[in-house]
Amino acid sequence: MAGVNARAKSGAKTFRVVVIALASVYFLLPLVSLADFSVRFPLTGKVDANAWLALIAPDDSGRLDLLREGLFNSLVMAVMTVVLAIGILLPTMMLVRLRLPKLSRIVEFICLLPLTIPAVVLVVGLAPIYAVISTKILDANTIWLAFAYVILVLPFVYRSLDAGLRSIDLKTLSETTRSFGGSWWTVLWRVIVPNVRSAIVSACFITIAVVLGEFTFARMLARTNLQTSLFQINLSDGQVAAAVSLLCLGLTTLLLVALDLIVGLGERRRARTLAPVTVED
Amino acid sequence: MSVAPSVTPTHSRDAAPAASRRRGPWLSVAGTVPFFAYTAIFLVLPTLLVVVGAFRSREGVFTLNGITQALSERTIGIFINSLVVSAVTALIGAVAGALIAYALATAPSGSLMRRTFTAFMSVVAQFGGVMLAFAFIATIGINGMVTRLMTQTVGFSLDPAMLSTLFGVGVVYIYFQIPLMVIVFLPALDGLKPQWREATANLGGTGVTYWTRVAGPILLPSFLGSYLLLFANSFSAFATAAALISQQTIIVPMEIESALRNENDLGMDAYAQALALGMIIVVALVMWGYAVLGRRASRWQA
User: Fold this and answer.
1) Boundaries of each ABC transmembrane type-1 domain copy (chain A) (predicted)?
2) Does B283 sit within 8 Å of A118, measured CB to CB?
3) How confident is the model at residue A278 (pLDDT cuts 50, 70, 90)?
4) What is the ipTM of this complex?
5) Domain containing residue B38
6) Would you say domain A60-280 falls under CATH 3.30.160.20?
C-alpha cells in the first residue's frame, strides 16, 4: 500500500514539474522574444541598445513626442482616476454602512456592473456624452477620459475598499469619534482613512495598472494615451514600442507584487492589533 | 435655576442624536448623491444610450435601420467570427488552464513553486492588449525570434502572415485565457477534500471511479462557469486584435470601431449601437449562465 502511495506521489511530482516547466517556457517565450526584438535591428540582425537609449535621450527630433504625450496623459489620468474613484466611493460606502444599510445591495450592484458590460459597449454609449463634454462643457483634451476610467476601475476599487471596511469595526469607531465631538469629516479623514490605508493603497495600485493599460476608450474616442501612442509608434518604430512595452510590463508587475505584499502586511498587522481588543472584551 | 445648567447639557446631548436621527436619513441620502449622480452619467446613461439608440435615428425618430444593418449577412458573419474565436480559445484555455491548475494543486499550498507560479499567472493574465500583440509579433511575426530560430535550424517556420488572421488572433488570445483559467479554477481544485478520494478508495473505487463519479461531477459546474468567464473575456477583447490586424474588421469590437470612427456617415451611430446591443445580449446570457453555475458550484464549498 505504502509503495503504491509513494509511486503515485512521485508520479504526481513528475507530472507537476513537467507541466509547470512547459507552461513556464510557453509564457516566457513571448517576453524573451520581446526583449530580443527591442535590441535586434530587424534587417541586419545587428544587436544594439538604440531603442532603449532613445527613451532617455534628451533630444530625438520629435520622434517620440507622441509617446511622451501619451505617457504624460496616462499618468495624469491615473492620478485623476485614483482621486475621483476613492473620493466618490469611500464616503458613499461609509455612509451606506453606517446609516443606509438598505442601499448597500444597490451600491454593490452598480459598482460591479462594469464587470459585465464590455468596454467596447460602454464606449459606444460614452461617445455622445464625450461629444457634449468636448464641445459644450470642457474640451477635447485626453485627460477628461479619466471620468470614464473611474467607471472601469469601480469594481476593483469597490472590492478593495469593501474588504478594508469589512475588517474594521466601523460603527464603534465612528460612534466613539462622534461622542468625543468629532465631525463626520473627522470620522472619515482621521479615523476611517488611516484604518483602511492598505485597502486604499491597493485600490490605487490596481487603478494605476488599469489606467496605464487602457486602450479601447482612447482608441475609439480618438484620444492619445500611453497605449494608443504605443500603437502608433509601433507602425514606425517597432523596437521602441517593444522596449516601452517591456518597461510597462515591468512597472505593472512591480505594482501588482507591491499590492500583494501590502495586502499581506495589512492582514498580518490587523491580526496583531485586533488580538488585544478581543482579550479586553 | 441652579439645576438648569446640568439639565440642559443632558437634554441637548439626548436631543442631538435624536434630531440627527430624524434629519439623518435625508442628510445621509444627500451624501450618496455624488455617487449615484456620477454613475448615472458615466455608467447608466451610456448603457441606456446603447439600448435606446439602437432603435433611434440621429433625429430621435424610432427606426430599425441600425438593427437591420446589424442583421445583414456580413455583420452576422462578423458576429459568428467573434463567437467562434471566443468559444474555441475559451475551450483551449479552459482545458490547458485546468491542467496547469491541477498540477499546481498537487503541490503543497505553501510551496515556493506554487506561490511563484500563481503570482506569475496573475501578472500574465493582466498582460493583454497592444503590448501582447507586440510580443507575439516579436515571437512568430516576420522578424520574430521563433521565426528566425526556426528558419535557421529546421529551414521553415510558421507563416508570419498567420498573425493577422482570425486564427492568429485566437492563438494570441490563448496566451491570456490560460492564466485566467488557472486563477479562477485553482480554488475549486483546492476545495476537493482528500477524504473524498479516500472514501472512494475505501468503497472499492479506482482512480477512474473517483474522477468520473466524484471529483468530475463536483468540479463540472466550476469548470463550465470558468469556461463562460473565459468566453466573455475574449468576446469583449479589442486591443489585441486591433494591434494585430489593421486592414479589415473580423470581430465585432473592430466593426464597432469602424462604425464609431466613421465621420462620413453619421447614420452609423445607430449601427454601432445595434452592434453594442448585440454584444450586451451575448454577454448577459453568458453571465446569467455563470451565475447559475456559480450557485451550483458553491454547494460543495461549505
Assistant:
1) 71-259
2) yes
3) very low
4) 0.85
5) 4-53
6) no
